[in-house]
Amino acid sequence: MGLTAEARRQRWDVDLTATGPGTPGGTFLRQFWHAIGRGEDLPAGRAVPIRIMGEDYTLYRGMSGKAQIMAYRCPHRGAQLHLGGVEDDELRCVYHGWKYNCTGQCVETPAEEPGFEKKVKVPVFPTEEAFGLIYGYFGDGQPPAFPPYPESRGEGDVEAWPVEHVPCNYLQSFENSMDEVHVAFTHQPGGSHAALARDLPIITAEETDWGMLRFGTRSDGTVRHTLHYAPNIVRVIVPPLAGMDGIGGWPEITFHFTPVDDENHLWVISAKVLVNGDEAERYRQKRAEFYERRAAAPSVRSVVDEIWAGRLAYADIRHPELAIVQDIAVQAGQGKIANRKTEHLGRSDRGITLWRRILARELRLIAEGRQPKKWQRPSADVIPVIGANISRTVGAA
Amino acid sequence: MGLTAEARRQRWDVDLTATGPGTPGGTFLRQFWHAIGRGEDLPAGRAVPIRIMGEDYTLYRGMSGKAQIMAYRCPHRGAQLHLGGVEDDELRCVYHGWKYNCTGQCVETPAEEPGFEKKVKVPVFPTEEAFGLIYGYFGDGQPPAFPPYPESRGEGDVEAWPVEHVPCNYLQSFENSMDEVHVAFTHQPGGSHAALARDLPIITAEETDWGMLRFGTRSDGTVRHTLHYAPNIVRVIVPPLAGMDGIGGWPEITFHFTPVDDENHLWVISAKVLVNGDEAERYRQKRAEFYERRAAAPSVRSVVDEIWAGRLAYADIRHPELAIVQDIAVQAGQGKIANRKTEHLGRSDRGITLWRRILARELRLIAEGRQPKKWQRPSADVIPVIGANISRTVGAA
Amino acid sequence: MGLTAEARRQRWDVDLTATGPGTPGGTFLRQFWHAIGRGEDLPAGRAVPIRIMGEDYTLYRGMSGKAQIMAYRCPHRGAQLHLGGVEDDELRCVYHGWKYNCTGQCVETPAEEPGFEKKVKVPVFPTEEAFGLIYGYFGDGQPPAFPPYPESRGEGDVEAWPVEHVPCNYLQSFENSMDEVHVAFTHQPGGSHAALARDLPIITAEETDWGMLRFGTRSDGTVRHTLHYAPNIVRVIVPPLAGMDGIGGWPEITFHFTPVDDENHLWVISAKVLVNGDEAERYRQKRAEFYERRAAAPSVRSVVDEIWAGRLAYADIRHPELAIVQDIAVQAGQGKIANRKTEHLGRSDRGITLWRRILARELRLIAEGRQPKKWQRPSADVIPVIGANISRTVGAA
């Protein structure tokens, strides 16, 4: 893996998993937009609490449809602003009626002297929507371009999936997304492992100006290109979803692993399926049936808890979100924050190894007060693909 | 508010919210009787655990009807005494049958040498009942006069309400009781805030020899006098209870915010309604119906948790104890112990400001080993009232 | 009790309750086999997580029927091995298919270079079965003889009971097993205490080369011999089980109090009932009916929680496992780790006093790096008995 003992030691000088304000990891993460939820889960007039990278915020949608991230507490006496009421595009605190607009300016303090409100302001944070998702920017200064990555090309349906809460550090899930080999084992319990092991991909990866491009090369020459956008997004083509009878073919899916705090993250997903006309109708019908089964099923977390406690065998999991249950059970099962100091990495971990090296480098630059890499908006030319003879000459990671 | 920067700094030299033994706050609180529960919830022969100001105790009611607070654990091998059995007015430990009387003296140790019991004694604490409530005294020396405040005058029903557990420091609820403005916003979600804001009271307050007398003056000259008995009791006249169709008029209610520990308190309530004859019967019938609806409703805490998680909108709360749900959601939502260092207080917070000044003064005296104020039993002459032209010349707090 | 003040002080120099690796208490405990579960709860092909003395492990049963304790995590990237699949007598990790045999040797790493697996090994731990139970050895070097104590003599049924999880330090339950007096009070609530107190046993005990032999002598000369095998096993004759109508007489029961961590332990039980022929059939029928009632009852822990909260009176407990509910409520009610510094011990605590002295001695020897006692496998000659004129001259503890 090209790392000297000294380099390996230095990698652990910084905490790769930190997400909180003021930590190198938290500063690194705060350079980027973060997907914080699904647009359809926030109707106009609703305010909800969110916790992102160890800090609490209020998210509300004004009556005009505008979503806005605001401070968690009213500066008067600390009431939670998400208990407040939305009026037009403004939010009124439930405790004493102090009202704030989208810029954070207080515009009413009913029981105080006239003009009192002018001195009161709450922090607000850039908030945008794309791909069915709401994104926030929590860093200093101006946010980077939005949306943070190009839209998928081709006519089709964009579908944001229900957000999952994953009880472990975000980096475990992001690393898992670089680990194409796990699919044959984690998602095929009870299947013939011997058969699967016959054609496992060879993993290579290279750093790009927007993150990491990773290749999985099969023995028949097929190569899968997967895009890992810094700091926590993966864009990938996946097999037809379970129960869809192949309608829509292989969709393109974008996963966002957004830290809630150091020990929890949101798994925020947007999918693009190239369907139109009658096929689109059949696709939507199938998905509606899926969501009915999902609503009737036990929560993902409750199944994961049964598995962790040893009361349910992994091979006996039955759930409409089987792959999600499996991924959360295995990745969050590595621990709230996986111990990376006792690993035995191999060639199949090259994507993970490269990303850790990039991450450690960036975090050290930040820790030392030096200029970190200027990440670029991903080009629309680089898309996730699967096929033969598409592989560039790839440098082994 | 008349506080210099220096005075403001000094206020925070002491922890206003501490309740534990040995802290200035805990010593201050232990000068007074504390309401610990409702008499009717403790039938003769029952023993229950209680936790007050960070310490555990056993509370039991002897067969004669006498309630008694005793140490939490048996001194033999630490069994919880509330598991024990009541015999006459004595309590026998469930582990080895050691038996204690109301003075704490052990009177039987069945498996030990005769006379062994004479050497064994457990702490007991003064325990009294009034207004449908059980009170305990946990301080050194003799307790102050009992009951701690005069009975309300006039014929009527005294009704102790079910005790609520509030998951935050007691001072938040006590401060909220000094905050008459919140009613228009916290308890009227969805109502017309503009209309409410037209006639918010002007708050003034003054220190008395028993606590703090607070005035809420409306633009029409109506003044509401509310009594804040040191250290954590409020006596107030409130509008007719929801669903009572006005029967009984405006009742007088006494709230006790009794610390369980620094991060939890009991909300112990006794109400006096001036009803008699047929009206009393109609009142009781209405209340019985209310308690039926209450028993069928989800727990207050479960609704609060839904609100805090953002799964239920504040305006959508439907619960027989609507005001209690709202108060707990908002006040405990300030945090387990509200951060008072980042507040922006205004004129409507004058009651709170005065009480904090009094409290800080007392706690500093205690911390410095000097003589704190000698609080007096409240006079029966000073009662909560609402009316025009009743206001004394009030000194602004 | 023959302890000078100095000796009493020294007893507390060591933490009698510690179970974790590297502590004197943990080192002491790791000299012995520990019962970790019931054989019938682990069918062939199943893998489950276990936590013993503060450390996590994987326990699985191969297809041949062999049970094996293995490391908790795969050394590759830390996945929990109990999520893996059993193949023959080997365990394959669910994350990337690494496969381990019963010696801990990795035998497959499908996505890695051939031969990679040879470098990979996981810790495994001696695992044996007897008396319907699975035992593990977690110490250094060779384990002591197995089974750790002789089988009970006489024809009959051996029955392992469902394992209970007790939320307190193991030593509290082990001490309780030395405390014969508690039975009259803990297990007879509502009964006539005066009557019980008339014939409480006099307790004496002596150290043996395998642990402690304890005697309970009644006023009629009857003596009960109970065996306390080091470090946490008690073998005792108990009255006919509730609801069995006396079938099977007084069974011999062996309790194992196996630490999960410092604040939790497993209560692992194996019973031997001297029944055969028709009586054995009637016994099994009765037990089957008992297990049906048990399955329909609320969990032991949920009842204990109601008692601790004061919502259920001890005398009102109704549960098929009444004695187990009572024991857990009382012993775990002493606290997660009972405070032994504030006790008032008496003559009835002589068994406890002796065992603490033995334990403190051994822990001090270990802490000082000196040679602790060489404990012997219990002789088959020393069995628990109850009867008149069987008492040896016993040295008072």
Give a written overview of the molecule.
Three copies of one chain form a homotrimer. Chain A is built from nine helices and 20 strands. Chain A has helices at 5-11, 24-29, 170-176, 183-186, 193-198, 277-296, 300-308, 322-332, 350-367, and strands at residues 33-38, 47-52, 55-61, 67-71, 85-87, 90-92, 99-100, 106-108, 124-125, 127-130, 133-137, 157-160, 164-166, 202-207, 211-217, 222-229, 233-237, 252-261, 264-273, 385-388. In chain A, strand 15 (211-217) and strand 16 (222-229) form a beta hairpin. At the A-B interface, strand 2 of A face helix 4 and helix 5 of B.
What is the structure about, briefly put?
Three copies of one chain form a homotrimer. With 397 residues, chain A is an alpha+beta fold.
C-alpha-based Rg of chain A, rounded = 22 Å
- Biggest interface, CB < 8 A: A-B, 32 and 34 residues
What is the terminal-to-terminal distance of chain A?
Answer: 7 Å
Shape of chain A: globular
Mean pLDDT of chain A: 92
List SSEs of chain A in N-to-C order. Answer: HHEEEEEEEEEEEEEHHHEEEEEEHHHHE
Briefly note the structural class of the backbone of chain A: alpha+beta
Helix residue percentage of chain A: 10-25%
Low-confidence stretches of chain A: 391-397
